[in-house]
């Protein structure tokens, strides 16, 4: 397959010098890519870092600004690598530290940054720290984990993986004590009360920072500390530690971003930005995603309007991360029970599609592969406040395999070509870490990068154009957000404003064509210019601005300022004429003279 | 008052008023018209307010309020708002509908903010709330019996066109509810009254209320949901994505909360025993009158009388209170945080004293239930018969009616939709009223209330 050649010459695409663009993440388009699933360079059926290097041109062509790599550390892989057994080693099947270094340099040379996942809350039970802790309670690691003689502590903490775990405590037959784990029982929680643990974690972070990475996505941060009588989430000590991490970063590693994963309501998540933006610069906005799905299914904007209205302001240097799908299930933790039932009913008709408290599906099958809806969702993702995070494969509309266990259904190999193994690997198809999707619609024979590169109308080409358009308007990343009222409940309209860069987005959430009348009086005299074709629309006046949208259609308009200022009539002229008019009306007896009580100099004659 | 030169203006009104949507006397012949006007503002443009008294040949009379803006040159962009020109000493002065002349909309708020009195007109700001002085107002396109101006995203001024002595219930109720901080109403910002020349009670001219931005009315939301259902052919109302029941439920709760607060701050009274008989008799009388106009109603007359008779015999405990009086999906706004109930004027066609009478909240519940029926069926109007859709419509209405009632009873502890003969009768009464309205205005919609009556009378 011919890899597309990036538009811009390499010289222009290298990263700016360190320290010169501290808020790059506010304008960036992120792309989450699983090393295992992207490209296999050594024909062992497993994707690796060298394979990813070969695909960097593609990602640059697509317009990605920053790659997010979920854990690629040494791990027994019982939880997709989130069960780390060595914080400073690469999983051998992915390559080694030298490979990672080269990958990082190549990405930087193409103007792309790289952030990596870091799981602080817990390790794998195979981590040497845990092995030492269980066998030698009095040794240096004895206090690295949270041990107890019984399983009654912290009873108010909920169980997260309700499908597989029945308690947050598991008995260890070696140490003959219970250990604490918020996730799987093979992932013991580290004991952050222990200063040695905190030190060890910061050392591990430094290891990667010294290699030159551009940031961390901090996994499962709300759970670092525990405290009796609380739900053991979002505790003050946890925030204290994150502030400490941020200090390390700010002091020594300019332009590094911390992106926290706190699957909480936005009102609670904002705490992770710190009061003055001194904690994490980014956090995921979890509830937006299910609300987008709900709004389109309900054909009304209110699920989105509601969540946007409930989203608190964040410090200036901070940014939300927004996404449609990622490697986890479509999270339904952030919706009410009633909404959750609704979402399950709508989007996960087969029980196998449900996982934990979410839906394990990819974007395209969730939307029945409907082109218009896929485009609408992506347009919303790229235009709502926050930095968009794409999930590998969704740019071509890859499908899921709901017959695979756990969350593997959305982690199958990237589909590059219609050839053997979808161009992902030259190994024997039997050796693939997961089988390629061979579905008649979503399978690699039909849905792949190569064929979509050839077709200018493909989802891939469309998405690239939209990313380019987004890149031309800083307001998408930096601007304020204000919904524009209209009576039509099926249309969501909003304005993004950043200085003179004003963009109006109008989205039809209904499958039927819809008219909408927008109250754009604030922009009287402006001319809307549609952003994909740069066609000028009629100038905005004081009357409601009328638009019609196709089913699931949307518009992005630049609102271009009038060149001539609107001339205000002068007061003198006005009052001279008006008193003559009033006098003649009085003279004609059309209007009788009135007294005004109480009188006030300005009263009535402004 | 000067008589002669005025003829010019009344002549203009004779031409112009009958063409206005807010004019309720369409089709009635005018026997005479007089008017008196005064300046509200002598800035540019000049703004005057006129009371126009119309006498009809049938003996009835109405007084309408007409604000005019004046210019000494015709303004091209106001062509559609032109009322006409009056001449004096060879000079023409042009009169425009001031509600459509953006430049003459500011004085209303300025005077409200100042609490001015101008001629017979008194401006009263509410005790709390910000009046956005200085903003121009834009006319709301859905003008009906009143005319509304929206000032920015902040306030909405409703001008009551037909003057009636007494405080308008919309002002009265909103003013009383301010004390409750109910989150389901749009707070009152002020109102304007005009003294009666003959010394009677002043009439309400206008009401200023907080504007609810970015809202959609319930009718549009409900019909979007119905459209979604019809597009799904084989799915049931509770299975489609556009299900509206959660919204209906919240709307029920909002209605209950407003009812409870109205009972708290406005008069209530235990219904006397003969109240039921009176209500039943009134409904029967309305039915008799309606049959004259809609002969198709005769078919249901017997069943309806039985429904009303059950009310007369009722021994329900009913506390009468002030109610909304004209509650339907078009009177509620969905915002990003919930439902807002608007327009406590009652049915505008009824005399003001009647509209201020105590009633039971069931009247409003019945109104909303009827509205669900309308929303479910309006897409069937003028469509070839389709029993599948008919069935779906029925299912949608039943589901949302039930959800509304559930929301209402969760919030109030009273299930309004149990086996109350009163509710059933109110629904029937409302449907009878709708038959008359449809027969007069939209005959092809008549099937909607008729089919409902067939269901209501056939329930036993
Ligand atoms: N406070 C308000 N905020 C926003 N819109 C309003 C408000 N009041 C009225 N409207 C809009 O104006 C329309 C008519 O209002 P309403 O009070 O029902 O007047 P009318 O008596 O003319 O029907 C409503 O359907 C609604 O769309
Ligand atoms: Mg912990």
From TrEMBL, chain A:
EC number, as in UniProt: 5.4.99.16
UniProt xrefs under InterPro entries: GH, GH13_cat_dom, Glyco_hydro_b, Malt_amylase-like_C, O16G_dom_2, TreS/a-amylase_N
Catalytic reaction annotation: D-maltose = alpha,alpha-trehalose
GO molecular function: maltose alpha-D-glucosyltransferase activity; metal ion binding; transferase activity
Coiled-coil region(s): none
CDD domains named in the record: AmyAc_TreS
Gene3D superfamilies: Glycosidases, Golgi alpha-mannosidase II, Oligo-1,6-glucosidase, Domain 2
Glycosyl hydrolase family 13 catalytic domain: residues covered: 32-431
GO terms (BP aspect): carbohydrate metabolic process
Keywords: Calcium, Isomerase, Metal-binding, Transferase
Family: Belongs to the glycosyl hydrolase 13 family. TreS subfamily.
Protein name: maltose alpha-D-glucosyltransferase
Biological source species: Blastococcus saxobsidens
Gene: treS
From TrEMBL, chain B:
Entry-linked Pfam families: Mak_N_cap (PF18085)
A Gene Ontology BP annotation from the UniProt entry: glycogen biosynthetic process
Domain Maltokinase N-terminal cap: 16-101
A single MF term (Gene Ontology): kinase activity
Gene3D superfamilies: 3.90.1200.10
Keywords: ATP-binding, Carbohydrate metabolism, Glycogen biosynthesis, Glycogen metabolism, Kinase, Nucleotide-binding, Transferase
EC annotation from Swiss-Prot or TrEMBL: 2.7.1.175
UniProt KW 4Fe-4S keyword: no
Reactions catalysed according to its record: D-maltose + ATP = alpha-maltose 1-phosphate + ADP + H(+)
Associated pathway: Glycan biosynthesis; glycogen biosynthesis
InterPro entries in alphabetical order: Kinase-like_dom_sf, Mak_N_cap
Protein family membership: Belongs to the aminoglycoside phosphotransferase family.
Quaternary assembly: Monomer.
Record's protein name: Maltokinase
């Amino acid at each position: 397959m011919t890899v597309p050649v990036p538009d811009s010459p390499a010289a222009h695409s290298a990263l700016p010098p360190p320290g010169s663009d501290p808020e790059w993440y506010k304008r960036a388009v992120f792309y989450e890519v699983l090393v295992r699933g992207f490209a296999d360079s050594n024909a062992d059926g497993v994707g690796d870092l060298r394979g990813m290097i070969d695909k960097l041109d593609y990602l640059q062509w697509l317009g990605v600004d920053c790659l997010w790599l979920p854990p690629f550390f040494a791990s027994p892989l019982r939880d997709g690598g989130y069960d780390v057994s060595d914080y400073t080693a690469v999983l051998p099947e992915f390559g080694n530290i030298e490979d990672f270094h080269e990958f990082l340099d190549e990405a930087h040379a193409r103007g792309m940054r790289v952030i990596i996942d870091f799981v602080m809350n817990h390790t794998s039970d195979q981590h040497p720290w845990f092995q030492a802790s269980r066998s030698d309670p009095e040794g240096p690691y004895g206090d690295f984990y949270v041990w107890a003689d019984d399983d009654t502590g912290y009873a108010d903490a909920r169980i997260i993986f309700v499908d597989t775990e029945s308690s947050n405590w598991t008995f260890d037959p070696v140490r003959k004590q219970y250990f604490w784990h918020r996730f799987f029982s093979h992932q013991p929680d580290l004991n952050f009360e222990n200063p040695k643990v905190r030190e060890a974690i910061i050392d591990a972070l430094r290891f990667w920072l010294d290699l030159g990475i551009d940031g961390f996505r901090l996994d499962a941060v709300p759970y670092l500390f525990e405290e009796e009588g609380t739900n053991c989430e979002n505790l003050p000590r946890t925030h204290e530690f994150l502030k400490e991490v941020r200090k390390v970063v700010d002091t020594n590693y300019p332009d590094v971003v911390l992106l926290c994963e706190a699957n909480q309501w936005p009102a609670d998540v904002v705490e992770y930005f710190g009061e003055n933006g001194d904690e994490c610069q980014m956090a995921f906005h979890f509830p937006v995603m299910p609300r987008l799905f709900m709004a389109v299914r309900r054909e009304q904007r209110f699920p989105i309007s509601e969540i946007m209205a409930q989203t608190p302001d964040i410090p200036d240097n901070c940014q939300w991360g927004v996404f449609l799908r990622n490697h986890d299930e479509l999270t339904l933790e952030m919706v009410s029970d009633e909404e959750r039932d609704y979402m399950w009913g709508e989007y996960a008709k087969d029980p196998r599609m449900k996982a934990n408290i979410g839906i394990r599906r990819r974007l395209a099958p969730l939307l029945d592969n409907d082109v218009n809806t896929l485009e609408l969702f992506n347009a919303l993702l790229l235009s709502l406040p926050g930095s968009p995070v794409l999930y590998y494969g969704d740019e071509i509309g890859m499908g899921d395999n709901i017959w695979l266990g756990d969350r593997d259904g959305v982690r199958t190999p990237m589909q590059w070509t219609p050839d053997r193994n979808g161009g992902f690997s030259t190994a024997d198809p039997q050796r693939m870490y997961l089988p390629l999707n061979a579905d008649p619609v979503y399978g690699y024979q039909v849905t792949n990068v190569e064929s979509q590169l050839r077709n200018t109308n493909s989802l891939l080409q469309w998405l690239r154009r939209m990313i380019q358009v987004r890149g031309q308007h800083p307001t998408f990343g930096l601007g304020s957000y204000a919904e524009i009222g209209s009576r039509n409940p099926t249309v969501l309209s909003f304005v993004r404003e950043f200085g003179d860069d004003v963009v109006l987005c109008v989205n039809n959430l209904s499958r039927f064509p819809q008219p909408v009348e927008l109250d754009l009086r604030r922009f009287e005299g402006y001319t809307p210019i549609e952003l994909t074709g740069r066609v000028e629309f009629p100038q905005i006046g004081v009357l409601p601005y009328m638009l019609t949208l196709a089913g699931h259609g949307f518009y992005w308009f630049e609102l271009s300022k009038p060149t001539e200022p609107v001339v205000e009539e002068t007061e003198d002229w006005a009052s001279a004429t008006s008193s003559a008019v009033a006098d003649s009306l009085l003279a004609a007896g059309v209007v009788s003279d009135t007294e005004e009580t109480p009188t006030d100099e300005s009263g009535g004659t402004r | 008052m000067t008589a002669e030169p005025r003829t010019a203006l009344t002549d203009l009104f004779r031409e112009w008023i009958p063409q206005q949507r807010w004019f309720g006397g369409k089709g009635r012949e005018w026997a005479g018209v007089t008017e008196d006007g005064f300046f509200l503002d002598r800035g540019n443009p000049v703004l005057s307010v006129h009371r126009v008294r119309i006498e009809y040949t049938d003996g009835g009379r109405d007084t309408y309020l007409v604000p005019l803006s004046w210019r000494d040159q015709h303004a091209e962009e106001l062509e559609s708002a032109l009322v006409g020109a009056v001449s004096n000493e060879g000079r023409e002065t042009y009169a425009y509908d001031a509600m459509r002349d953006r430049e003459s909309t500011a004085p209303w708020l300025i005077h409200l903010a100042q609490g001015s009195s101008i001629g017979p007109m008194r401006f009263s700001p509410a005790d709390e709330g910000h009046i956005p002085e200085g903003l121009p107002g834009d006319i709301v396109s859905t003008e009906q019996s009143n005319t509304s101006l929206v000032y920015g995203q902040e306030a909405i001024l409703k001008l009551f066109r037909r003057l009636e002595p007494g405080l308008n219930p919309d002002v009265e109720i909103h003013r009383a509810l301010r004390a409750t901080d109910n989150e389901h109403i749009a707070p009152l910002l002020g109102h304007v009254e005009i003294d009666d020349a003959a010394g009677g009670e002043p009439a309400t001219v206008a009401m200023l209320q907080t504007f609810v931005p970015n809202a959609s009315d319930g009718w549009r939301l409900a019909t979007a949901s119905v459209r979604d259902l019809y597009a799904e052919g084989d799915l049931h109302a509770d299975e489609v994505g556009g299900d509206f029941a959660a919204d209906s439920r919240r709307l029920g709760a909002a209605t209950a909360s407003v009812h409870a607060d109205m009972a708290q701050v406005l008069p209530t009274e235990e219904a006397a025993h003969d109240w039921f008989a009176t209500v039943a008799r009134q409904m029967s009388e309305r039915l008799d009158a309606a049959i004259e106009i809609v002969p198709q109603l005769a078919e249901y007359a017997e069943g309806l009388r039985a429904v009303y008779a059950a009310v007369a015999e009722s021994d329900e405990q009913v506390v009468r209170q002030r109610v909304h009086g004209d509650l339907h999906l078009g009177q509620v706004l969905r915002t990003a945080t919930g439902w807002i109930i608007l327009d406590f004027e009652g049915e505008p066609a009824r005399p003001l004293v009647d509209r201020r009478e105590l009633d039971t909240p069931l009247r409003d519940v019945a109104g909303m239930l009827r509205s669900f029926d309308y929303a479910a069926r309006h897409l069937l109007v003028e469509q070839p018969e389709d029993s599948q859709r008919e069935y779906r419509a029925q299912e949608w209405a039943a589901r949302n009616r039930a959800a509304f009632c559930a929301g209402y009873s969760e919030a109030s502890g009273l299930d309004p939709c149990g086996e109350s003969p009163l509710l059933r009768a109110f629904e029937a009464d409302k449907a009878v009223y709708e038959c008359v309205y449809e027969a007069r205005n939209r005959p092809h919609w008549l099937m909607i209330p008729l089919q409902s009556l067939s269901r209501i009378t056939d329930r036993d």
